[in-house]
Amino acid sequence: MNGANELDDFEKAILLGYDPATNEIVKQQAIEYTNKVKNASDGWLFCLDKLFKTNRVEVRFFCLICIQEAILHRFEALTVEQREIMKKGFVRWINEYLPSNSVDVAIRNKFAQVLVIFFRATYPQEWPSFFSDILSYLHLGPSLIDIFLRIMRSIDEEVVSNEVPRNTAEVAHNVQIKDYMRMQAVKDLTQTWHTILSSYGSLSIEICRDCLDVLKRYIGWIDITLVANDQFIPLFFKFITNDQLREQSCECIYEIISKGMIDPVAKLALLSKLNLTSVFSAVSMDDDSDFLISVAKIVNTMGIEVIDCISKVNALLVEQKVTPEILVNATNMLERSLILMFRFMNSEDDDVSQCIFGFATSYLQTMKNNAELATKQNENLTLLLQIIRNKMKYDDSYNFDEQDENEAAFQDYRKELRNLYKLVTKINPQLVSNFVSATISAITTTNAALSYFDIEVALTLLYNMGDGLPENTLKSLEGFFGKMMAMLSGSNVSAFPHQAITLMYFDVIVRYARYLPDDAECLKKSVDLFCRSEGNTKS
Predict the structure, then answer these.
(1) Are 332 and 277 in contact (CB under 8 A)?
(2) Which of 126, 145, 127, 129 minimizes the C-alpha distance to 137?
(3) Residue 165, preceding bond cis, omega within 30 degrees?
(4) Considering all CA atoms of the chain, what is the largest pairwise distance in Å, rounded to the nearest integer?
């Protein structure tokens, strides 16, 4: 396979195979020819040589595939000398060809993938200096930094990521690679990432964005102090002010606060060092939706982590393993986090609001078994009820007649709000009854014109109060439910000309029928409602 004519034939065969306009018979012949090269025992060597002699993207790509096949399926058959030839070929291509920005992106990606497959087979036993060798070429410029970041991304995909199915042997092998990387390479890698971010912050947004994307993939399993420090944190906060880098920066911060840590005191110290409540308090709720979602996810995770730490610190406090001051500081951190939770949960964008539900649920769970709530806790519950009421409302864009994916998404969102509401009701039914009473009073006694969404949400809150409460709690609320039914039956709410009101009012009457006042006028209104609902159903 060494003749010049054969090389030309090989290149032509590849081009014919890729060309959709090629005659099927000719294409089949071309594919058979190239497959012979690919399947030959020394085909990879032929293709490695061809990489340096062609400028055709299609040919380069095919050659890389041939080399990849050899590594994946015939690597054990290769001699030590052959593996060394392959390694030197990769290094030479990095040194001679990749410094040029003219190398096609598809080739860059494929080269990175193939190199990493070779890395996986040879690191650390046969190529312990892999990372130091790659890092030694970064001085050649942005193009080499680009390929370095592609390589690191490919290592995540081929070795680190748990999203790729792997057998037991592959998992064990990859764990060994990660362990060796932790010992020998990660410190230099993180320092390199910091240098790139510091140097290219104002020179190349694309390089910085790619570097942040790579960094976020590694934070979860490397020593957290290599990233959560006075070098990186100011950079993350700086990039948050850059519209083109802030989402990637948020993703890195998210990975930091999501990092599993056994010691709750250490985790609280990390969260305190980040001081995210102060940083994100300045975020405008009128900002870009994608950015607000990124921040909301951080706030949500931060809140959940603080709550988990407080639980662990309480246990340690009983054992006198921590000081009360740590619990006080953690509680203060939670209160500051709750301010952000309320802000983001009340966002006009439901996608932003929904990101906070995990934090809200965890916070409510901490109060489920409390015999008596503190004043601040009741204030927080009241604020949460106000937000739930506000966010449960329909708006003019909701189409009751032709519901599509937008309406379905809002119903799913509303269901999650109802779950939070029911949890609040179980925690403090008296507080909720006072809140609902004021809400129902507003729609039954006001002389001002009311919108259907104000009336509907009031009825919805009343309806869901009785859902899932234990019998003894329901019994204690009999007076409340009786008062609500009297207020509704004495009003004109049921006559509001909107199907959402009619149906919701009907559901309320059915659920709380036993609390209806025993008078003729109330019964007449209820019968009229039933008849109207039946008519609406038939129509």
Answers:
(1) no
(2) 145
(3) no
(4) 106
Cβ(137)–Cβ(95) under 8 Å?
yes
Torsion sign across C-alpha atoms 90, 96, 100, 103: negative
- The sign one gets for the Cα dihedral 177, 182, 185, 189 is positive
**Secondary structure (DSSP) of 31-56:** HHHHHHHHHSTTHHHHHHHHHTT---
Rounded CA gap, 528 and 512, in Å? Answer: 17
Distance of CA 334 to the CA centre of its chain: 22
Cis peptide, bond prior to residue 470, ω within 30 of zero: no
Which two tokens mark 498? 């909107």
Token pair, residue 113, equals 């993938």
Q: Which residue has the tokens 């179980």?
A: 426
Residue with tokens 């020394």: 42
Domain borders along the chain are 260-366, 384-539
Tell me the pLDDT tens digit for each residue of 266-314: 999 999 999 999 999 989 998 999 999 999 999 999 999 999 999 999 9
Q: Which of 240, 277, 139, 147 is nearest to 195 (CA)?
A: 139
> Residue 88, exposed/middle/buried by CB under 10 A (0-12, 13-18, 19+)?
exposed
Tokens encoding 307: 């709550």
**Angle at the Cα of 331 (from 329 to 337), degrees rounded to 5?**
105
Task: Report the candidate in 469, 454, 538, 468 with the shortest Cα–Cα distance to residue 504.
Answer: 454
SS3 154: helix
Reduced 3-state DSSP string for 407-420: HHHHHHHHHHHHHH
Percent of the chain scored above 90 by pLDDT? 70
Dihedrals phi, psi of 15, to nearest 5 degrees: -65, -40
CB 67 within 8 A of CB 106: no
Length reported for the chain: 539
pTM of the model: 0.89
